[in-house]
Amino acid sequence: MSGFSVDRLVFGPDDVDLSRSPLAGHFDAETYVLGAFNPGMTRLSGGNLLMMVRIAEALREPVHGGHVRAIRWDDGRYVLDAWPLEFADTSDPRKFEIAGFGWRVMALTSLSWLLPVELSADGLEVVAVHYDRAIAPQGSWQCYGVEDARISRVGDRFLMTTCSVSPERHSTTLYSSSDAANWSFDGIVLDHQNKDMLIFEGLIEGEYWAQTRPLGQLFFAYPPGSPWHAGPSINHATSPDALHWKPHIEPAIRPHAGTAATARIGGGTPPILTEVAGRCGWLSLWHGVEPHEIVGKYRTYWSLLDPERPWKVLATSHEPLLEADVGLTRPLEDKMYVHDVVFTTGIADAGDHFVAASGEADLACRITHIPKNAFIPS
């Protein structure tokens, strides 16, 4: 258990009406909600909270007639692609790998789209589900889905980064809005396999800042005795307009050598300017992954970054702020396909506490009220 006074699941697979899905009626195969999770979150002008929930819509029978099938957007419609089973590794229920290319190639058994879910100001009640404003693939660059929204408010603009998946590239795409209700697609802003892009909620010396997390198959070693170890880390980038991004030269948040719990790290919530642990700075909630089973154990950690030089960490904790809670998901045990995963993706200031939104077990949306005095540096 987390120990926080408010910590519960507020939206899950059973709350999604697939008859109103963007995929409804496009092909003759039954689908179900594999997960309703990893919600980007922001506070609306009227005070309510908005979650942009990732809906992973999966085939009920991905294996059919000696083939494994993937859902794909194709020129305004959704189609099924069938791959011979003898060329596919289907050990992971979320995806399958295709042999014979000389490098890793995969396809998904589900396709993700984004569903706006409006919550009460405290995040604990669903006020409305806006199917008419769902965001779904609209081009070949996201033919396998739109995933993991993160929403930042910078001045009078709402900026939403998403991960768009396709054979062309695994890119970061940007949407913008004046009200968080009507979103405009602004294009690809980061190219292949740079995930977890989080735009700071405010400018620094007139520039937009963002956290990024480039992926790769090769990392160079830190020297023996270093406090860091090689692997995916959180970097920074700057932009004059939120569209054109330049990597910042200084390293930012790096995986710690002393703990396997942060063997791999990545961004969680958009950094917000606030005061915690007696200091003012950019509060960043991020995830650390400990190798375990298929996907690893995901936990939420935090760092406070310097308000003017955000590559400098003012305070952090090696103890997790949030961990997966089996008590929350016990009623959904029949739907579980991964365990030990909490992935915090949204945050809102609520006075003496923060409202944090997370994906729990890649299955449902979790809301936690985190008191500001809970941030105790290591």
TrEMBL record:
The family classification in the record reads: Belongs to the glycosyl hydrolase 130 family.
What Gene3D superfamilies is this protein classified in?
Glycosyl hydrolase domain, family 43
Q: Which Gene Ontology terms cover its molecular function?
A: glycosyltransferase activity; hydrolase activity, acting on glycosyl bonds
What InterPro entries would the database entry show?
Glyco_hydro_beta-prop_sf (IPR023296), Mannoside_phosphorylase (IPR007184)
Q: State a single Pfam family of this protein.
A: Glyco_hydro_130
Taxonomic source organism: Tsuneonella aeria
Residue runs in coiled coils:
none
Q: Which keywords does UniProt give here?
A: Glycosidase, Glycosyltransferase, Hydrolase, Transferase
Task: Identify this protein by name.
Answer: Glycosidase
Q: Does the keyword section mention Hydrolase?
A: yes
